[in-house]
Amino acid sequence: MPGKLKAKIVAGRHLPVMDRASDLTDAFVEVKFGNTTFKTDVCPKSLNPQWNSEWFKFEVDDEDLQDEPLQITVLDHDTYSANDAIGKVYIDIDPLLYSEAASVISGWFPIYDTIHGIRGEINVIVKVELFNDLNRFRQSSCGVKFFCTTCIPQCYRATLVHGFVEELVVNEDPEYQWIDRIRTPRASNEARQRLISLMSGELQRKIGLKVLEMGGNAVVGYLQCFDLEGESGLVVRAIGTACTLDKLSSGSAPNTNTHMHPNTAPASNACNSPSKDGKEPVFVEDLPSSSGPPTPFRALPTSSSSPPPFSPSKPCSRQSSSSDTDLSLTPKTGKNTWPRPSFPFSSLPSPTLHIGEFPFFTLTSFPPGFLLHVGGVVSARSVKLLDRIHNPDEPETRDAWWEEIRQEIKSHARALGCHAVVGYSESTSICEEVCILSASGTAAILNPRYMREGCLDIGCTDHRLVSFFLLFSSKSKCQSSHVYDNAPFWFLLFSRFEDPSPPSCGFCHIPYDELNMPFPAQLTYCYHCRRQKVPDVLFTTIDLPSEAAVAGKGCLIQARLCRLKKKAQGETNATAISNLLPFMEYELHTQLMNKLKLRSMNALFGLHIQISVGENMLLGLASATGVYLTALPAPGGIQIAGKTPGDLSNEHISSIQKRINDTIAVNKELYQINPPELAEEGVGSPIPEPRHRSRLFRSHSESSDELSELDLSHGKKDAFVLEIDDTDAVEDIHSLLIDAPPPTGFYSCNTENMPGISNWTSGVQMFTSVRVLRLSNANLTNQGLNKIFTDLCENLLKSFYFKLRSMIPCCLCHLNFTVAVPEEELIQVTVTAVAMTYDKEQTQEKTAEKPVNKGSLEAEEQLQFPLELCADSSSSNIQTASKISGIFNSASVDYGSFADRCSTWLELLRLKAHTIRRGSVKTISSLERCSPLQEGRSRSLRSSRSFGGSSVTVVKMTPLSFLPGIRIIKYLGIINMFFIRETTSLREEGGVSGFLHSFIAEVFAMVRAHVAALGGNAVVSYSMKECVFMENPNKNQAQCLINVSGDAVICISETDQESSASTANTGQTGGGGTDGAT
Amino acid sequence: MSVELDVFVGNTTIMDEEVYQLWLDGYTVNDAVKVRMEGGVMDECEASKDVLLSDTMDQYRTFQMCERLLHSPAKLANQLLFQIPPHRQIMLIERYYAFDDTFVREVLGKKLSKGTKKDLDDISAKTGVTLKSCRRQFDNFKRVFKVVEELKGPLVENIRQHFLLSDKLARDYAAIVFFANNRFETGKRKLQYLSFQDFAFCAGQLISNWTVGAVGEYNMVEDMDVDLDKEFLQELKELKILITDKDLLDQHKSLVCTALRGKTKVFPEMETSFKNLSRGLINIAAKLTNTKDVRDFFIDLVEKFIEPCRSDRWTAADMKLYLTHYTNSAHILDTFKHQVVWDRYMGVVKSCIFKMYHD
């Protein structure tokens, strides 16, 4: 019996009045876990009851601990009739199950009722005592950490990336069970909430098991989704990237210093005085001898301005032909024979069991050097008819569907000469019994080893050690074991992957064979290094690599499309949809391409294409962040041509042409696109190639095909010359020009990092906005619909700009649009994003200045990861690495100050660790920028409160993986919450808007409360994955389901680092005070 | 085609102070949009009317949701629903409890009852304050009144702590509560020239000098600052000797006249009206044991003292001079034994009259 869960109910406050006669409440609490229930005493006649209960103890399996939530129900005692429920709190125990995370959950939780919303708060303390159980055959996976963040989390280092993990579980939806006809809406909602909570727990446990099997200890980029399939059931599915992560320092402090590994010491010295120790190699051979790498590796040149002085070694194994039907995606030569290095982890089970059937990575940003080449976007869609899931324990159909899609993605990647897919994600859109499954990602070639380098030349001692391994399973297990002991193999491997491309442009170089191109593309020599070929345009689903060389700023680019379809049933409907899909993808792609050209940019990052199905229409929305990569050729302009001169007057065409040219010029100015120097060659629009549309028109069967970059890219050529052959084309061009640029002072993007802006200040405002449009006009055309849809998106953006105008200069980051067609004539757009302020002055200076500031700034931001390696020591048995490696792209970095920061950072970590150990630290973040109390340095929450009695921790939220000016010192666990809210008094609650407004506010409040109870003060990588809204105004009813997730973290303001001691103290007293209330 | 649903929710609750004020002032959403458009906010961010409308609706909804919390401001600080930075919370509360002087002037001293509430539309029409805003202000008065009614301890401090108001606003509310509790008459035509601030000042004087709490020994009793000190009111009857005893009256007059002679232009008028004025003030004092007369305290001051002086064209300085000497001279009267009561009475009356003596 491996775990003991303890819960204590302390007090309640702001309870609702349950007894009209006395205006008071006789509250008591039921605490339930699994099948065990405890009750507190009744606290009579109080709206602020103090229960101060004993510790309720549950002795449970860790399997249950993972699956089940702790369920707390607050009730009003009634002597004569049934007790009335006030509301519930579900607490996910998971964060307590791994040692590094939270040790206690303690705080005020909103009491939530699915009909009435939040009704008061309850103070609860939860602890878990876990007994170690090393049973190999256990069903639990306690200890596997989950991160929503799609990069290696700050304060961790990845020693191994194992690859793709996925799982799905299915069940009947309680809302559709027979019993639902006789139970109350509340009971039904609660059954649903509980079931989904259970299913997510189970899913996470199962994924955890897979990770353990692979030898990993964490899942990064964990993406969990619900498919509400209605009658046919409820699917919860998740994908992620299994990794082995090492915690950096803070946990092992305060002894860090004394126990410092001898090998790390010089490294950190080196940070302080790079010139002195510059020549001393710090690299130590810590790798297993069986795979001992050759020692001295020549450093890659790290200056972004000067290309490497040596010639590229021709990568081998690119010749694997795309016609190859072997889907293992492990090209024949060399690659599939990567041995698994034996690591000093004793507990690792034998490798290569289940890993990596799919070389997919849900990560979107990588440490420098990890991503070698990017091929382009690969995507696949398939239309399915839902049927009842007969046996929930064997969810074979759904598994098979996804399997199919993934295979397709894999083969696309392969056709692009790539062996991996990064920035991978999956989604569904369901309408009645039709379901569109979609998957997309970016085909890429990765460095299987995090590269090593000895930067002997440039005066930094930096030896990046092996900290990153990539394991692809090869289908042929024997093969890999065969070469396992083959020592020279490593040498081969290294020379193979020692990529000569400079990091600022290397990823743009084509991975596919030039002579055997999978699709027609305009190739030129890289404008950066002039050594390798690059395509003229690059589309990806990942974030802009931090080391990429860009000109000017990025901007959000959206393609929007509506397509009417006839209402139909079953098979006919599915066929109709799958016939429409390729046209939609084609048009979205063309729109994106044209808009990209219009902004004078040549690459898209974070591309996300969503196609949503409704009864009588399909909606397509593609969002991406456009950017000008200096490695790629400058985009040519857009030329307008009439098909026949007589059709439309030349004047008309030339006026359009002029407008387009003007727009391009304005955009260049707006986004400050002044590429360094425009080489003569290759500029100007290449001759458009003949169209290859035929390939697009091939028939799509029930399982509609991909339209990957590779197919669509013929469209690209058309982008240069737009033919006006009918009125539709004119409309299209007009709609191109509709997109208004953001007002002065605003920028927008949908990626983690805003290209061209890095000097964030502390202002952060996360928001969610939902807009639903009712199409009253029944006789809408495609064109009309497009216009309506485009206006809807544009108006939303305009609203954001207006609302956030007080934050100027500011950038809307991670703009995530989700579209849905909830009912026949409704279009719903849900947006979650974060507005962040930045320092305008610095940006302008920076562009002019030498990269001194830029280097340190960017390095800080881009790679907290290597930075923190410096503080790490406990796990140095494997390797050491210097933080400077993170900034290897700019040569002239101010190492001194950087190192200073590091050492104070170390200091702080130690202090933090100290306080954390005492438990119940509430780290206090600085409040929003505008607070007059918060001038300069942030203060503890307590001191900034102007009135007493308050214990509400400020919790910041962001969809990004970082907070500006703030360092994450601890990840407390994943937040994954599902809520249902229903009302039968819609009008009284302020109509649909009032209802949803308060529900979203309540969801935020509950997320914040859970984070605060874990001891955290921020949520990163926050996302609202589901917002299903249904209404029935005639019955005065509405229902909404929301699913949110994110990573709870403790973070501290960077300004606090300098005054670490005082902060730690105030933090502690603050925490103590807060806990005093409990 | 119509927008069915439109919401925007920030993790940190976004509130525009201008819109908040419009909401407090009882503007409808459409009127608020008009005001904002005229205010030129559209130029700021290339906004359109739709954008403005959507933003105003969002904010109005937010305020409506917050309103419940603003009814007990202490909750605002430890509620979890809205994340509002502390300085914003203070702003929200302060503005919510702010009131229009013109409005409060109308209800000052009236019973805070349903009856009065029914008259609010008249007041609204009279003052130009929207009915919605009138209701909010009236409900605020009522709420504060109800809460402090049951609390022990100093009134201003209780209001400040319970409603987290600034000192100034807490004092104003104390005045409103005090007036409502004692039902002082303020609505008579003769009192119309007095502003709320005049009355608030007087209330402050009365609270700190004439109530049970003013004495000090009765700390922490209920209503200590709301009810006048009954004992003191009883003792005030003793002052009658100053007008009933002819010797004392003459003596008093001659002392005052000696002191004033040559110092003011209106000396002759002062001399002739001395007895009348003194009778007026002391009769007011002697009658204060009657609740009815307490209510008429201010009207009596005006009728019995301020008006006669004003018709004799006293300046404010004359008034000050006269009252100072009038008060001080009583100390020199050897047969007059009620110095403490006299000071307690005249101190307040003096400062009230100073405040009230204007056009």
TrEMBL record, chain A:
GO cellular component: cell cortex; cytoplasmic vesicle membrane; plasma membrane; ruffle
SUPFAM superfamilies: C2 domain (Calcium/lipid-binding domain, CaLB), YbjQ-like
Biased composition (Polar residues): 250-275
Biased composition (Low complexity): 313-330
Claim: Transmembrane is one of the keywords in the record: no
Subcellular location: Cell membrane; Cell projection, Ruffle; Cytoplasm, Cell cortex; Cytoplasmic vesicle membrane
Keyword Acetylation: no
Any Pfam family the entry gives: YbjQ_3
Region listing for Disordered, in residue ranges: 250-343
Highest rank taxon of the organism: Eukaryota
Protein name per its UniProtKB record: C2 domain-containing protein 5
Annotated source species: Oreochromis niloticus (Nile tilapia)
Designated gene of the protein: C2CD5
Automatic annotation (TrEMBL), chain B:
Gene Ontology annotations for the cellular component aspect, listed alphabetically: nucleus
Biological processes, Gene Ontology terms: platelet aggregation
Signal peptide: none
Record protein name field: Fibroblast growth factor (acidic) intracellular binding protein a
Entries under InterPro entries matching the protein: FIBP
GO molecular function: fibroblast growth factor binding
